Every structure is written in structure tokens, then in C-alpha cells.
Automatic annotation (TrEMBL):
It comes from Exophiala viscosa. One of its GO terms (cellular component) is nucleus. This is Zn(2)-C6 fungal-type domain-containing protein. Residues 81-100 have a biased composition (Polar residues). The keyword Cytoplasm does not apply. Residues 29-58 form the Zn(2)-C6 fungal-type domain.
Amino acid sequence: MSNHNRNTDAIREKPRAQSKLTTRRKVKGCFECSRRRIDCDRGTPECQKCLQRGLACSGLGTRYRFNDGLASRGRLVGQKLPTTSRPKSPTVDSKASSRSRPAPGLRAIPDEQEVLPLVESDSSNLSPCTLSSLLDSQGRTALVSDANLSIDEGHNDVEEISHDDAALVLTQPMPDHLDAATRSLYTYFAINIAPIMAVIDRGFNGYRDLILPLAEYDPLVQKAVVVAATEHLASKLARYVLPNPNTYNSVLCGLRLRSQTMVPYKDDISMTTLLLLLVCEMISGGDKFTQIYGIMRGLIRSAGANLQFSSSRLGQFVEIQTLRVQLIAESLFNEAEGSNFVHVQLEKSLEFLRYCQSLHPEHSVLMSLLFDIMTQACRLYVLRASTDPPLCDTVQLVEDFKQVAEKVADYEHVVGHHLLLWPYFVAGAESSTIPHRRYFSQKMQAMYRTTRCENTLKAMHQLDRIWEAQSTTRWTSLLGGPGQVFIM
């Protein structure tokens, strides 16, 4: 064989040898792990590798970035959309002289270090670009607004926007008659608040599919949604976002004015607004719970047998959610009346679980566990408030509750997180052994890390005070008062 033929055969064998080399399959994880060139453990909502390093993990969803101008590259870079409706406001990174003056409608925090302008809950005073950039800084929150979106080309290995491993589908496009800031807060509400309020966030969600469309044309509900979204956003970006108390107060004034022309307990909009204000108290852990629920409680009591909700789907949803709120709020409002309400109205108040069961018959096992865990929590509360048995007599009851809670834990990716806060609080307050107290404290800590609702932290602080006085005082008598937090 000639040298030419041998060389030709050798050249042909090289690709065959290279083809036998196998490359390790890339682990599709979060953006932070991909930048650090390590394999992500794909934990949700944040991976453990980022948490161990103290990094803010963006999660497994597609990353969106907002452009302030028309484009991020090409000849349109830096160009702005023309506007005739509002004067130009100074941008954050313009000049040193303009940095010292906050944008119109934005409040500045007195600080020695320079910070970004603050976003208030009044959406009419929000700067769309500023709000979009602040929302986008929360990597695990995927937002869709009218701003120009730029998907990170280096991290597009996840095809759909996810929330706790469940794809969130907004069935209708956001309305054009709302400003960009309000649309962004609507989407934030749909992604971050509506899921934690649901029993099972699969498909239909009343807070997202009924209340948000109502807020599109009703200014009172719209303000309440904006306040709730801003409160939750402030828990993540406390340095840059401050809820505007004037907006909160304007909602209360709007309710007062509306009550002069319409009967509140026959008005779905008034009751919906009160529900949203209670959601705000849940998120912020504020001290206005007794005031807001006192208004709702007074309306319901004054109506008596005349209490009516509309026959629409919204009216049905508001009625069910009102009963759900009553079950929990009455136990936190007054011990004697609360124990009587929980004992008498338990079956009626669990209608929100039956409603969810009709929507999700495929989760019959889970729904049975949820009925069980809510019923056991109510019985623990009534038992302590009415008979005050020795602590040793309820240890087994708490253990039975814990066993059901461990079964429910297998469905954590399905159950709305804040459904279980009140049952955990009741069982934790009744706990007299160290293992039981530790178990429910850990459950509530995990819940706070997921939802970032301040009422969870304050509920844990209240548990500490209950445990200190447990040997001498009924813990149910320690609930209520002006500073009581809405534990829901």
C-alpha cells in the first residue's frame, strides 16, 4: 500500500475516534449557577447552591429584562418613545444634578448613600421604567408588561414561565387603558399573591380570574389590588419601595363614600375591596386587622338574614371567601364569640374547600387531608377556649394533627401556602413538647421563605409569647386586641 493511501485512511479514522467521545449532558438550572459554571440542583423556588452562597437565586423560570428604550441593540439603541401626555422626568442615571431631585410623585429616603427612587403604591405617580426595573430585579418573578422585553439569550433553557413548578397562564391580555405601572402590578399580583391565596392553584383562581378583571374598570378595587401588590413588593425591596399610606386611606374613604349610595352588604365591590384590604394586612403583618375586619364584621351583623351576594360567579366567590375569612378572623378577634362561631359555623365555613374539590376532583385524597387538618385545628381551638383541659391531655391530639400535616407536606407543590398558616399556628400554640414546637416553627419558617408575608413572622413571635405563658393562661385568651395580626 502506498504512503498516500495510508495517510488517507488515517485521516478518515480521526473523526471516528472523536465521535466516540461522550460529553456530559448540561444541567439546565438557574441563571446564577450557569454564570458560576456549576451544576444547579434545580431547587424551587431557589436552589440550595445559591442559598448556601448567600446569592439571590432567579429560579428555573425564563429571565426577562426590561429595556428603557425602543431596543437593546441596533440603530434604535437609546431612543425613547415620544409622549405628549406627560413631561419628561429625569432618569436615574442622567446627571449628578438631576440625581439630587427625585422624580415627580416619588418619595426619597434620607440616606447617606445614593439609592434608587422609591416606588409608592399610588400607581398614578409611578414611573413605569423605574417600576419595571425594580420588578425585574426580583429574578424569580417573571413579568409581562408593555415594556420592551429582552429574553437573556444565554439562559433560555426553560420554555415557560413557572411559579413553584406550575406554569402560570394569563388567559387574557392586560388591558391597554391602564398605565404601564398598574399593568406591571397587576401581573405581579397574579404571579405572587393570587397563588398563595388559592387552595389549589391549578387552572381557575378567583383572585386572578375574577378579581383582577373587576379591578380593570372599578377604581376602588384597582387601588386595593395596587396596594396589595406594592405591600408584597416592599417585603422584597424594602429599600426601594414604600407603600403609600395615602392610597390605603383613599380606599377606606372610597368605601365610606360608596356606602352612602349603595348597601355595602349587597355590594360585591365593597366586599371584594374589604377582602383585598385583609390580604394587605396578611402581607404586611400590619396592625389594622381589627379595624378592617371590624368593618366587615359590622356589615355582616347589621345585614343579618338580609346578607346577599350576587348570583354571578364573582358574587359566589366573594361569599365563599368571606366565610373563609370569618372562620379564621373570628378566632383572632374575640375568644368567646370566636369559639362559638368556629363550633357552630365550621361546616358552612369550609365551603371554600368544597368549592375547590368540585374544581379538582383529581385531588380527592389531598382534599380529604385538607378537610381533616382544618377540622382538627378548629377542634383544638374550641377545646382550649371552652374547657381548657390540662396540656398533657392534648399532646396526642397535637401528634395526630402533626401526622396529617406530614401527609399534606407531600403535596406542597400543589397546595396554596397560606392555607395552612392558621392550622399550623393553632397546633403550635397548643403544643407543649419541644419536638412539636420545633416542628411547627420550622413549618412556618419555610412558609415565610416562600411567601415573604410578614404576618407569618409575627405569628411566630406571638407563639413565643404564648409558650411563655402557656402554663398559667389559656392561649386563646391571648389573641385579639388592637395589635393582633391577621394570621391567615
